[in-house]
Amino acid sequence: MxxxxxxxxxxxxxxxxxxxxxxxxSDLSQSRLRPALVLAESGRGDWVLxxxxxxxxxxxxxxxxxxxDVSAGSLQRTSYARPGKLFTxxxxxxxxxxxxxxYEILRSVVERVVSLMSxxxxx
Length: 123
Description:
Layout: E1 4-5, E2 8-9, E3 17-24, E4 31-43, E5 46-53, E6 63-65, E7 70-73, E8 79-90, E9 94-101, H1 103-118
Antiparallel strand pairs: 1-2, 3-4, 3-9, 4-5, 5-8, 6-8, 7-9
Protein backbone atom coordinates (compact mmCIF):
# COMPACT_ATOMS: atom_id res chain seq x y z
CA MET A 1 0.00 0.00 0.00
CA UNK A 2 1.14 3.52 -0.73
CA UNK A 3 1.73 6.14 1.90
CA UNK A 4 0.89 9.79 1.44
CA UNK A 5 2.67 13.11 1.72
CA UNK A 6 1.50 16.49 0.51
CA UNK A 7 -1.84 15.26 -0.86
CA UNK A 8 -0.65 12.78 -3.47
CA UNK A 9 0.51 9.17 -3.40
CA UNK A 10 4.23 8.79 -2.74
CA UNK A 11 4.35 5.20 -4.02
CA UNK A 12 2.33 3.94 -6.96
CA UNK A 13 -0.67 1.91 -5.85
CA UNK A 14 -1.12 -1.73 -6.82
CA UNK A 15 -3.97 -3.57 -8.51
CA UNK A 16 -6.55 -4.39 -5.85
CA UNK A 17 -5.77 -1.39 -3.64
CA UNK A 18 -8.52 0.89 -2.40
CA UNK A 19 -7.38 4.45 -3.09
CA UNK A 20 -8.90 7.77 -2.14
CA UNK A 21 -8.97 9.69 -5.44
CA UNK A 22 -10.49 12.74 -7.05
CA UNK A 23 -13.22 10.99 -9.05
CA UNK A 24 -14.87 13.17 -11.74
CA UNK A 25 -18.59 13.59 -12.23
CA SER A 26 -19.72 11.98 -15.50
CA ASP A 27 -20.11 15.42 -17.12
CA LEU A 28 -16.56 16.38 -15.96
CA SER A 29 -17.91 19.58 -14.37
CA GLN A 30 -16.49 18.73 -10.93
CA SER A 31 -14.73 16.00 -9.04
CA ARG A 32 -15.25 14.50 -5.64
CA LEU A 33 -12.81 12.82 -3.29
CA ARG A 34 -14.02 9.24 -2.98
CA PRO A 35 -12.74 5.69 -2.61
CA ALA A 36 -11.91 3.80 -5.77
CA LEU A 37 -10.69 0.30 -6.54
CA VAL A 38 -7.40 0.23 -8.46
CA LEU A 39 -7.97 -2.19 -11.37
CA ALA A 40 -4.92 -1.88 -13.63
CA GLU A 41 -1.86 0.18 -14.43
CA SER A 42 -2.20 1.87 -17.82
CA GLY A 43 1.27 3.41 -18.10
CA ARG A 44 3.06 6.67 -17.25
CA GLY A 45 1.68 6.76 -13.71
CA ASP A 46 -1.93 6.30 -14.84
CA TRP A 47 -4.28 3.73 -13.32
CA VAL A 48 -7.76 2.46 -14.21
CA LEU A 49 -10.04 2.98 -11.20
CA UNK A 50 -13.52 1.69 -10.37
CA UNK A 51 -15.83 3.83 -8.24
CA UNK A 52 -16.67 2.57 -4.75
CA UNK A 53 -19.73 3.82 -2.89
CA UNK A 54 -21.38 3.00 0.43
CA UNK A 55 -24.84 3.61 -1.07
CA UNK A 56 -26.61 0.36 -2.03
CA UNK A 57 -27.72 1.50 -5.49
CA UNK A 58 -30.06 -0.67 -7.50
CA UNK A 59 -27.12 -1.16 -9.89
CA UNK A 60 -27.34 -4.82 -11.00
CA UNK A 61 -23.61 -4.84 -11.79
CA UNK A 62 -22.45 -3.57 -8.39
CA UNK A 63 -20.21 -5.89 -6.39
CA UNK A 64 -20.65 -5.82 -2.62
CA UNK A 65 -17.49 -5.33 -0.58
CA UNK A 66 -17.82 -6.22 3.10
CA UNK A 67 -15.34 -5.06 5.71
CA UNK A 68 -14.05 -8.67 5.81
CA ASP A 69 -13.16 -8.52 2.08
CA VAL A 70 -10.27 -6.15 2.75
CA SER A 71 -7.06 -8.14 3.22
CA ALA A 72 -4.81 -5.22 4.16
CA GLY A 73 -5.88 -1.97 5.76
CA SER A 74 -9.54 -1.35 6.46
CA LEU A 75 -12.92 -0.40 5.10
CA GLN A 76 -15.26 1.51 7.42
CA ARG A 77 -18.54 0.02 6.18
CA THR A 78 -19.99 -2.35 3.61
CA SER A 79 -19.50 -0.75 0.21
CA TYR A 80 -20.13 -1.44 -3.48
CA ALA A 81 -17.76 -1.40 -6.44
CA ARG A 82 -19.53 -0.03 -9.54
CA PRO A 83 -17.97 -1.65 -12.64
CA GLY A 84 -19.86 0.72 -14.94
CA LYS A 85 -18.15 3.73 -13.33
CA LEU A 86 -14.51 3.58 -14.47
CA PHE A 87 -11.93 6.36 -14.62
CA THR A 88 -8.26 6.62 -15.59
CA UNK A 89 -6.30 8.71 -13.09
CA UNK A 90 -2.70 9.66 -12.58
CA UNK A 91 -1.20 8.87 -9.19
CA UNK A 92 -1.12 12.62 -8.41
CA UNK A 93 -4.96 12.51 -8.24
CA UNK A 94 -4.77 9.82 -5.54
CA UNK A 95 -4.59 11.14 -2.00
CA UNK A 96 -4.00 7.86 -0.15
CA UNK A 97 -4.38 4.11 -0.20
CA UNK A 98 -6.46 2.73 2.66
CA UNK A 99 -6.49 -1.00 2.00
CA UNK A 100 -6.43 -3.85 -0.48
CA UNK A 101 -9.22 -6.20 -1.54
CA UNK A 102 -8.84 -9.94 -1.30
CA TYR A 103 -8.34 -11.74 -4.60
CA GLU A 104 -11.85 -13.25 -4.85
CA ILE A 105 -13.64 -9.90 -4.70
CA LEU A 106 -11.11 -8.22 -7.02
CA ARG A 107 -11.63 -11.02 -9.54
CA SER A 108 -15.42 -10.63 -9.26
CA VAL A 109 -15.18 -6.90 -10.02
CA VAL A 110 -12.87 -7.49 -13.00
CA GLU A 111 -15.22 -10.17 -14.37
CA ARG A 112 -18.14 -7.71 -14.14
CA VAL A 113 -16.11 -5.05 -15.98
CA VAL A 114 -15.26 -7.53 -18.75
CA SER A 115 -18.90 -8.63 -18.96
CA LEU A 116 -20.06 -5.01 -19.31
CA MET A 117 -17.45 -4.31 -21.98
CA SER A 118 -18.45 -7.45 -23.88
CA UNK A 119 -22.16 -6.60 -23.98
CA UNK A 120 -23.31 -6.13 -27.55
CA UNK A 121 -20.23 -7.64 -29.18
CA UNK A 122 -20.97 -9.97 -32.06
CA UNK A 123 -18.61 -12.33 -33.81
